[in-house]
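Researcher: I'd like a structural prediction for the single chain below. Treat it as a standalone chain; there are no partners to consider.
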Amino acid sequence: MSRTQNIDPTSCISRRSIHRAQCLFLANAALFLCLLVVACAPARLRRVAAWSSASAPASTDLTRAFQGADDAEAKRSLGLWVEKNHATASPVAPTGFRVAFHPGGRGIFSPSYFDRLEPAELYDVRGLKHHHADGIGVPMIGFRENRSREAIETWYPPEGITRAVTAVAISQPGGRVEIRLMDRMHSETVTIAGKKQPLAADFTVPFTKLLENARPLIVSGITSTLRLKAEREAGFSLMEPYDPNRTPLLLIHGLFSTPLAWAELTNELWADAEIRRRYQIWHYLYPTNPPALYSARVMRGKLDELRHFLDPEGDDPAMQRSVVVGHSMGGLLGKSLAVEPKEAFWGAVFTRPFHSLDLTPSERKTLREAFFWKPRGKVDRLVFCSVPFRGSRIASSWIGKFVSALFAPSSEFQDFFREIEKKNPGVIQPAYAELTQSKLTSVKTLSPGQRSMEIFDQLPLVNGATAHVITGSMDVVVQRSSATVSGATSHIEVPAGHGSFHHPDAIAEIIRILKLPPAR
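Model: Treating it as a single chain, here is the predicted structure.
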């Protein structure tokens, strides 16, 4: 016997609405987690059990190391001896040896430079591919607390200064032994008894030591968007000693992110000898709540400051070209280094000519750099990874509006335009009233159809600058139609989401691009 059930159609609609809302919530929660994954690539070191109980080096093994032996036991003894003695004025050596450290010079570190030196073999790496090379000497981790003891340290990561060091014992007549702490990023070989030999190396363990110290940045990529003042000032970090002959490679992270996002790529680049010889890596950190064009102006100023510090005369070969790799919003910042807007923005934003405004010298300088800037750094290649040149639909969705509402306003940005408007009433076009009247965030300005971004998208790269595009086939944040660049020399799509640059195919493509001849 059948039984008829009365169903209220409004309840079905209600349940469907709830189900749809739940699906949207889960989808956006998944998206948020994806952004977190893109934002960081954590890695850790684990002390090797076999070394945990290691005590003083065996005197016979150390003696053999000082005599030129390079087997595993001799290397272990030499590494432990260097760890213990590098900071002492009178190193303790076995009877019959007079051991001294090389004082330091091109490609060789002074022993006093480091606060700590440890054999790299003490550790296993978790979270990154472990890159090392066989050869003469003992790979070591050189660590120095960044206490700004030298002016250059302003431009090194505040979490510390780590270096890939290879300790080599050079046996000399009369029982004399010289210990050289080779800078493995700048030296491939060492000459012993007139014979050039390859140096052993560990490129990953020293870098992972820095990453461990920098783990708080994982959180700051998110929290910096929610605070009026970021924990860290925007700026560049030199990831290795400045070399006046190697091309700067600028890595610029995206929204909600930090330079930790580049951990995997940096590790892979350092593992390649040709890349090491040709490039030096500079990471850029910035809070991602302000509009991209504002952050781009700040970045250009930071780059000018750094370049002037490193090369006041501007004649170093390193300053004659540079290469940029940018992810997501970071790609927009990178593009600003290779375009010249001229009058493109001014007429859209302001109702009166620039020269007619009542401005202080400081305000005039800021506006000139914000609207009439010149290309920087002689950029000849730009690699754009999932960059929203024409915006992101997510930014204009309810989740984008929700996230934007949580962002802390950039008070410096807002107050500047309020002061301009106060002294020059009616000078800002009605379409840009948000510059002074509401909270304008990076997410809001990345909505499709945002006028400033449309103008920026239409600006061509300056002559000599070449674009390369990498997109993810599963990217739900930035669609392919938004991430392409007219006239790009190459474009590959990898089976990945918004973090396209993490994919092995993307890393291989970036390495391929970096090995091309200079575009200029």
